[in-house]
Every structure is written in C-alpha cells, then in structure tokens.
Amino acid sequence: MNSEIKLRKAETEDRDIIWNILQQAIERRRKDGSTQWQQGYPNINTVESDIKKGFGYVMTVDGEIAVYVALIINDEPAYNNIEGAWLSNGEFVVVHRVAVDEKFAGQGMVKKLFDHIEDFTRSHEIQSVKVDTNYDNVPMLKILESKGYTYCGEVFLAGGMRKAFEKIII
C-alpha cells in the first residue's frame, strides 16, 4: 500500500511533536559518537522560532509527522564565508535541522524529504539547494552523495566546521 507523503509548513500545534523528534535525533547523534547537536542546539526555542518565522516544515506520512526540517530562503550568513566555492550565486534554499522520528527510521525518509525539498525549490523558481552537515554525519553525507549534491567546501556554523554542499535545481 502506498502511503501519502506530504511536505507542509509546521504549525504551533506541531511544536511538541517536532521537539520530541529533534530530541530523538540529538540522542541518536550522541550514540553515534558525533559532536553534532551536542551543545544545547537545536532546542525548543529553535523550534518555536522556526515556526514563527515560517522556516519550519514537516513531512507527513498519512498525516503523521515523520520528519522535521527548516527551509530558509536566501538567508544563511555563514554561507557568505565558504572555504571553497558555491556552484552558483543565485537564489537558494537552505536545509537545516533535518530530524526523523525513530518510528520512521531506516525507511529512506530523508531521501524522500530531499525529493520534496527539490520540488519545493523548483515550484518557487529558486535556483539551488544548499546544505551543510557535520564531517562525521555519515548517513547524511551518503544521502547527499546519492542525491547528486556537490561538495563545495567548508563553512563555520554552530561552533564548528561543516561540510557544505549544493545542487542546482533550475
């Protein structure tokens, strides 16, 4: 049976579910021995701010929230200082704070999420998607590679160096 998968803006009522999913992700990164997300970020205030600013999105499976992501258009000051070079200088969508509910883990949800993000980018006539991740976030690095993202260099974000990637959409 095919599930209905949708990407929609997060609403205030989603806050506690989102925070729960992020806490699971923070714990998963810790168990994997990663330094990512281990210094009190993201936190509940991050979630509230994302929702208020309209950055927060959820991917639902048959109406149930499976994945959280922040999508920010043209605004990531850290990306102005890349050690390396972006593929483009046009408009872009920044992908931050990807977290999957453990109930949906191992089902290729993040790959599906990136398909939806690319559709979102295309529908807003935005040139590219930019994303960064920790050097030790192997699952995300593999997904970015499989989705055709190009490694562009390093950016300094949230207290550390991150690998930065871009994919031209239009």
Explain what this protein looks like in three dimensions.
With 170 residues, the chain is an alpha+beta fold. The protein has a single domain, classed as Gcn5-related N-acetyltransferase (GNAT) (Aminopeptidase, 3-Layer(aba) Sandwich). 30% of the residues lie in helices and 32% in strands. The chain contains 4 helices and 8 strands, in the order βααββββαβαββ. Strands 1-2-3-5-6-8-7-4 form an 8-stranded mixed β-sheet. 31% of the residues are buried.
How many E-type strands?
8
**Gap between N and C termini:** 33 Å
CATH topology assignment: Aminopeptidase
Tally of domains: 1
Mean pLDDT, nearest integer? 94
Global shape = globular
Please tell me the CATH architecture by its name.
3-Layer(aba) Sandwich
**Major beta sheet, specifics?**
8 strands, mixed
The structure class reads alpha+beta
**Helical stretch tally:** 4
Which spans of ≥5 residues are poorly predicted at pLDDT below 50? none
Strands in their spatial order, largest beta sheet = 1-2-3-5-6-8-7-4
What name goes with the CATH superfamily?
A: Gcn5-related N-acetyltransferase (GNAT)
The radius of gyration computed from the alpha-carbon positions, rounded to a whole number of angstroms, is: 15 Å
CATH C-level name? Alpha Beta
- Along the chain, the helix and strand elements come as EHHEEEEHEHEE
How much strand? 25-35%
Keywords: Ribonucleoprotein, Ribosomal protein
GO cellular component, one term: ribosome
GO molecular function, one term: acyltransferase activity, transferring groups other than amino-acyl groups
Domain N-acetyltransferase: 5-166
